[in-house]
């Protein structure tokens, strides 16, 4: 069943692995390739040799979802441990909780307001003259008022995206919660956790099937084989040789910090102040609270964001207005490309959380299998 087809899956991250597994379970043989020397893409995790800490090699990845099917799927391949993301921010020498909640508001303004008092206070702070915010900046001013916006969002956004907040869409900020209680759980989703043995082991588990061949250190461009179908999770513009231009991405640089004991007492500390060159520091043993106390040493990373060059790893699609025309041209070509399905964060030029990535991969596999029956 299906074994007569030659199928290639470009990319051994969650998108590629899930599609490969779904097809393999139905009898299809697939070749999964990745130009890196490891699986799991930007979710790759490995133990740091000096400290023993499980390090998220390409920055922190926290699993959170409201999708029961996706939660059940990831639990099939690894043990998910309880983990709540509680982010802190150092602003002008003081530490606050994020997302902005009642504690943040009271601490920032030196008050002791009740939820209703805080709501009324934020309304009085917010810019009432902005009816329909178009930009990130306008959304921030209407959302929390100038003082909170400047303290927590303006500088951080400039560093993260490298552009004026007035040029970014309001939708980016609309995703962030504002709470009038003391809940500092960064996410609202009912299912949240961290894999006990890291993400790479989960992805390797998904790929562990007799019908799946995995070839690492192998680029799509280097293949000289023909395939009946390709699932492509690499950069959309790269597939077409960047022949009409490059889409814009941000990339990240990480500067390690090694210390004895506990460096910052929390997993993630944001630094929104514009004069601080990095965006945040992540201390990775705190992503595994069940084992954090067992490590005598610690490792943390300062995170710097910049525009992605030709030889850099693309992290975040910027999706500026001037990218829209180029993206639409590539999307039109992708839609007309026979025998190729473009999936994942890079293949669709969208920022996707892990749960959405897995959910979409399951759907893509399901649709492909259904089309073979038709």
Describe the structure.
Keywords: FAD, Flavoprotein, Isomerase. Belongs to the UDP-galactopyranose/dTDP-fucopyranose mutase family. This is UDP-galactopyranose mutase. Its cofactor is FAD. This protein is an alpha/beta fold. The protein has helices at about 15-25, 70-75, 100-110, 115-125, 135-145, 145-160, 170-175, 200-205, 235-240, 320-335, 345-350, 355-374, and strands at about 5-10, 30-35, 45, 55, 65, 80, 85-90, 95-100, 190-195, 210-215, 230, 250-260, 270, 280-285, 295-305, 315, 340. The strands form 4 sheets. The chain has a 7-stranded mixed sheet. The chain has a 5-stranded parallel sheet with strand order 10-2-1-11-17. Strands 5-9-6 form a 3-stranded antiparallel sheet. Helix 1 (about 15-25) packs parallel to helix 8, helix 1 packs parallel to helix 12 and helix 5 runs antiparallel to helix 6 (about 145-160). The longest helix has 20 residues, at about 355-374. It is globular.
